[in-house]
Design a protein that fits this description.
The protein is an alpha/beta fold. Helices cover 38% and strands 13% of the residues.
Length: 245
């Protein structure tokens, strides 16, 4: 669908394509930049969630907010697209379990523990400036981070481990009492980017009963290992060659 004024004049999704694809349910990302924190982050997230509710109100023949698994089934059976919100980074709760609970009440059904830069209580894979995080100074999760995971388990909110450091992946899988997900990740065995998931974690995910959904963003599939002409170069290229042998 061409939309003047939108980058590339094209939307990633629209109602005709959602219907044609038979989409069974939709998580609408309510992402805000990592530079926002505290009350500003909470307010901006609420405004993003409000957009999802207003869209459902504007197109009631197509979308309906869903709050339970049964509602997802019933809404889809009625010919509409069940809609939920996905919080894309733990910084969005402003360090408050109360804010987390309120987001859940208005439709958020998963939260990614970190985006780039992290919330201060969970280690991310990538810094806010895009550089890679080598060590995990928080040990994956602080005590508050553990409390976040357990509260998400309690209220029925899916813990999303895309964007987090490998140490955070391990820690969250140790702490969680419910299946987790990777909402948009790739395989580190194929591309050794820190955002990608090692085989060791994939095996733990299998034990957890969780799910991984693949992202096809080029940097997580081939990324910085590849140079012009499709050849591997540099220090990271050596890592890539080692993976291939």
């Amino acid at each position: 669908m061409n939309v003047p004024g939108v980058p590339w004049e094209q939307l990633h999704s629209d109602i005709p394509r959602l219907k044609a694809g038979g989409v069974g349910a939709q998580f609408w990302s309510v992402f805000i930049p990592g530079q926002l924190s505290g009350p500003a982050a909470v307010q901006c997230t609420l405004e993003q969630i409000d957009v999802v509710h207003r869209m459902c109100d504007k197109y009631p023949e197509t979308f309906e907010m869903a709050y339970t698994a049964q509602q997802v089934r019933d809404i889809f059976k009625a010919g509409r697209i069940p809609s939920m919100c996905g919080i894309e980074g733990g910084h969005q709760i402003g360090g408050s379990l109360r804010a987390l609970r309120m987001f859940h009440m208005v439709g958020a059904r998963y939260m990614t523990l970190t985006h780039n830069g992290g919330p201060g209580w969970a280690d991310p894979a990538v810094n806010l400036d895009g550089s890679w995080v080598k060590e995990a100074p928080l040990g994956g999760l602080t005590d508050f981070g553990v409390a976040v995971v357990r509260e998400m388990n309690r209220i029925g909110m899916v813990v999303d481990l895309s964007h987090v450091h490998e140490v955070t992946m391990k820690k969250a899988l140790e702490v969680t009492r419910a299946p987790v997900m990777f909402s948009h990740s790739s395989s580190r065995a194929l591309c050794a980017h820190p955002r990608d998931v090692p085989d060791e974690i994939l095996l733990k995910l299998k034990e957890n009963g969780g799910v991984i959904m693949i992202v096809f963003l080029s940097k997580f599939v081939a990324g910085e290992f590849w140079v012009s002409g499709g050849k591997v170069g540099g220090e990271r290229g050596e890592a890539r060659r080692a993976l291939q042998t």
